[in-house]
Amino acid sequence: MSEIQKKQIAILGSTGSIGTQALEVLAHNDDLFEIYAITANNNVDLLIEQARKFQPEMVAIGNEIHYQKLKKELSDLPIKVFAGIESIAQVAEMQPVDIVLTAMVGYSGLKPTINAIKAGKKIALANKETLVVAGELICELALENNSAIIPVDSEHSAIFQCLAGEGNNPVEKLILTASGGPFRTKSIHELETVTSAQALKHPNWDMGAKITIDSASMMNKGFEIIEAKWLFGVTPEQIQVVVHPQSIIHSMVQFADGSIKAQLGMPDMKLPIQYAFTYPERLKTNFPRFNFDLCSQFTFEQPDLERFRNLAFAYYAMDKGGNMPCILNAANEIVVAEFLKDRIGFLQMSDIIENAMAKAEFIAKPTYDDYVKTDALVRILTKELIK
Ligand SMILES: NC(=O)C1=CN([C@@H]2O[C@H](COP(=O)(O)OP(=O)(O)OC[C@H]3O[C@@H](n4cnc5c(N)ncnc54)[C@H](OP(=O)(O)O)[C@@H]3O)[C@@H](O)[C@H]2O)C=CC1
Ligand SMILES: CC(=O)[C@@H](O)[C@H](O)COP(=O)(O)O
Ligand SMILES: [Mn+2]
Description:
Elements: E1 7-12, H1 17-28, E2 33-40, H2 44-54, E3 58-61, H3 67-73, E4 80-83, H4 85-91, E5 99-102, H5 110-118, E6 122-125, H6 128-144, E7 149-151, H7 154-163, E8 171-178, H8 188-191, H9 196-199, H10 209-217, H11 219-232, E9 239-243, E10 249-255, E11 260-264, H12 270-278, H13 309-320, H14 324-340, H15 346-359, H16 368-386
Parallel strand pairs: 1-2, 1-5, 2-3, 3-4, 5-6, 6-7, 8-9
Antiparallel strand pairs: 8-10, 10-11
Helix pairs in contact: 4-5, 5-6, 6-11, 6-14, 10-14, 11-13, 14-15, 14-16, 15-16
The structure holds NADPH dihydro-nicotinamide-adenine-dinucleotide phosphate (NDP), 1-deoxy-D-xylulose-5-phosphate and manganese (II) ion.
1-deoxy-D-xylulose-5-phosphate binds next to helix 7 and helix 11.
Keywords: Isomerase, Isoprene biosynthesis, Magnesium, Manganese, Metal-binding, NADP, Oxidoreductase
Protein name: 1-deoxy-D-xylulose 5-phosphate reductoisomerase
Domain 1-deoxy-D-xylulose 5-phosphate reductoisomerase N-terminal: 9-135
């Protein structure tokens, strides 16, 4: 019997929350998948451990200061070692790779994702900032290069799963659920004094620091409406956000006949990660099952755009288009980094983003170079606004 050709996987950001869970999923399915490449930025020790365990063809580390250590520690193994952000983008386009999981955080994911798309790879997309910054360009490139983008983000995976088998049946609206984050019930007055340590305690999901702060400020949901627009080709009016604090319904689709389909499950990213790798098939898992006996109520609320202004900014940026979502993202990356160091307050994050959006140069039809320039300039502008 001929051996099944295993799918070759590149994980960009293997040391992070999504990356480590993806390695777990792939380790359970090593009859179907082989890890071709893994990458990180600073966590060289974990990258070495992962490389020794999974023995990929290549590893790349963004921060070049770790190159010597990485090379030395793997010198007894036939693993190619690279360093520098450009090498991560090169890993993404390697010929044997079938699927690239983009699990880097923030704007840093853009260039490697573009390279992978240009090389016609299937993209398992976790790095939502790529679509926030340059959604139009990414969709054009994906179409030109016949590169499929499969969402990993739980809400978008839920929508993708609801759409499976629906062919061209018209969609009326997408209903994105939001947990509301750790500050859902806090008053605006209380929000003035919340700390990053409090913001890092997400009620339902265990995630990397940046996305956890975005969830607390609801910028995550703002990014997700923009991500949904590009992934599913809907208009802003067709995207509704509903706060569902239990995070069991991961999102819903309402079709033209009024019927609503939902995807439910435990808040565990391993399921959407695995689905992105195996789509259109589903593999048996032993992930914990949701049990209706243990949860007697699903509740729903409207998002409060006055306390969580970031969501309103994202709707504005999506409507405005051009480089406005890129401006929103760059300003957000800077304020989140400052808030994590407790150098600015929680509510200040939105004030500074609003200011940056008002002051940055708007470009209606940006090229890739315009995005690069916008990102760099808005980072400088935002730091000045913070001062
Ligand atoms: N975590 C989750 O449950 C979810 C995450 N997502 C999205 O997935 C992406 C990853 O999130 P998450 O796993 O939480 O993030 P983490 O911060 O946990 O991990 C980020 C990964 O990217 C690497 N990385 C960070 N910066 C750079 C850089 N400049 N160059 C190269 N590599 C870099 C990190 O390396 P190192 O460890 O060396 O710093 C790490 O491997 C984000 O876009 C997030 O929005 C979406 C839905 C859910
Ligand atoms: C797991 C995942 O997809 C996150 O984006 C999650 O949705 C964050 O939760 P909230 O942004 O809804 O709080
Ligand atoms: Mn999400």
